[in-house]
Amino acid sequence: MESSAVWPEPVVRVQSLSESGAPTIPDRYVKPESERPTTEVGGGAITTSGGSISIPVVDVSSPQDPSTARLVAAACRDWGFFQAVNHGVSRDLLRRARAAWRGFFRLPMAAKQRYANAPDTYQGYGSRLGVDPGAVLDWGDYFFLHVRPPHLLDPLKWPHLPPDLRETTEEYSREVASLCGRLLGAMSAGLGCGESRLQEAFGGAEGAGVCVRVNYYPRCPQPDLTLGLSSHSDPGGMTVLLADDRVRGLQVRRHGAGGGGWVTVDPVPDAFIVNVGDQIQVLTNAAYRSVEHRVTVSAADERLSLALFYNPRSDLPLAPMPELLLAAARPPLYRPMTFDQYRLYIRRRGPRGKAQVDSLATAAADDDDGCTSAAAATTAAADAAAT
């Protein structure tokens, strides 16, 4: 399966739809009733704000401290999400990064269109994920950039305006990628397999991939009918999100007694929201689990967030780490697959819950002898994308 080089239909910028003043949204953005943000899940949607149910907050000022590793590990096992405070990235840099990208999305449309993207790399200014024709779309625009490895970075896709955007984004990416390395060490130590083990599985600090997606969710006249980003788990390794400092919107799916539901995250000021991606779920044999999340939109306010993705080297076959397996008591749950192979699914289909990582687990369970290959994994992914 290969990613198409062109979008299946003309791309419409959601910002343009929002600024048109139309009182209703086009049918292409209306979600099925079961996916709308007001829908209850499993008997009761959880939409607490400041209540007793919330994702953990972890002080990561000393990531090598065993107590920090225990808290990070508990959050990754129980929630797949946590808010990292005292993370070492300066407040001034967070402010400058937000301001630069707000400035970009306020540029005239013609200036932004110079950086329009395509689905072969997604790098640049975009408004949809997936190339399935006729898909129901999300109410959001974005800008996607590769940072590492260097051969994927396209300098022509890095905006020249606002004047400080490039320098600020480069500095922001360096600082947050460094934080990711420290967090990965705490996650690894929390598994009991050594602080450097997950980083080694990623291909080492220099092998890890880094990319940035800036999300822009314009005001929406019918926010109860659509989503800024549909329910999905992140396909990569780890995501570090700088949420909007003025408008809430991120919801995390919580399973538990009573069926669970959607928890609306209240961002701690100047914190990062960290979540486990599918690749860490595979490497840890589901000791740490990626969790579905989605984004709601507002009729009153626009919303902007910056997500940095820290991913394993894209050509390494990934499978559960042997030291986390206990023969028949804890067999490997997933087939081997490279991240290059894995991410083709979302590039074709867009966000689809946890369909892909669950398909790997199903395929592994169906193996008679437990032996799999990257080639078989590719077939499994193609089969999943065709359903």
From TrEMBL:
Annotated GO biological process: defense response; negative regulation of defense response to insect; regulation of defense response to fungus; regulation of jasmonic acid mediated signaling pathway
Lineage: Eukaryota, Viridiplantae, Streptophyta, Embryophyta, Tracheophyta
Pfam families: 2OG-FeII_Oxy, DIOX_N
GO MF annotation terms: jasmonic acid hydrolase; metal ion binding; oxidoreductase activity
Compositionally biased residues, Basic and acidic residues: 28-38
Disordered: annotated span: 18-46
Catalytic activity line of the entry: jasmonate + 2-oxoglutarate + O2 = (1R,2R)-12-hydroxyjasmonate + succinate + CO2
SUPFAM superfamilies in alphabetical order: Clavaminate synthase-like (SSF51197)
Residue ranges annotated for the Fe2OG dioxygenase domain, each copy included: 204-312
Cofactor list: Fe(2+); L-ascorbate
UniProt similarity note: Belongs to the iron/ascorbate-dependent oxidoreductase family.
Name of protein: Fe2OG dioxygenase domain-containing protein
PROSITE patterns: FE2OG_OXY
Key words of the record: Iron, Jasmonic acid signaling pathway, Metal-binding, Oxidoreductase, Plant defense
